[in-house]
Hints:
The chain is mainly α and 98 residues long.
Amino acid sequence: xxxxxxxxxxxxxxxxxxxxxxxxxxxxxxxxxxxxxxxxxxxxxxxxxxxxxxxxxxxxxxxxxxxxxxxxxxxxxxxxxxxxxxxxxxxxxxxxxx
Length: 98
């Protein structure tokens, strides 16, 4: 699904990208980053379409989603001190730590 169609479906559901991200416990930057690629992963496209359809049929999907205990996604790509790009490598000591 294109990012534009994804946004249209969110509009049908009465949601902004940030509100969508909050509902599904996704980092809002992750959602807006899909605009760069021009496409949205299939699983988020399906969710957006279902939300749009439920909203049109006056089904309160927001309160249903809020009852689910979803663990927030961890931010990826942050490097930890002593690790290259946050990858799982062996720790190495920096000169000032020896």
